[in-house]
Design goal:
Length: about 120
Amino acid sequence: QVQLVESGGGLVQPGGSLRLSCAASGFALVYYHVGWFRQAPGKERDGVSCINNNNGSTYYDDSVKGRFTVSRDNAKNTLYQQMNSLKPEDTAVYYCAADAFNYQCSGFMGYWGQGTQVTVSS
């Protein structure tokens, strides 16, 4: 059974940190373009950080550059996103995703996790 399961979300104060994890089962992340997306209330789901599997390059949305870091552990078949200096505007449901062909950190992705809530508030 193909599955992506996120964890690590929660409530954090502005300026705090969280690390999201996304464990894959039923397929090997090493063969896929992977990334993190987020959806805030009333907004569309947008790409936040992604890894291009063709060359290992990373993409970050301008709003998170210098604060978020995407990485993966192929041995653990797990994707991570380290989030530092969190701001209230980072509040959203965060989803991990994987696709065999789409490396652009937007649009259709073949596999999605169920999402994890991140709330940044004092």
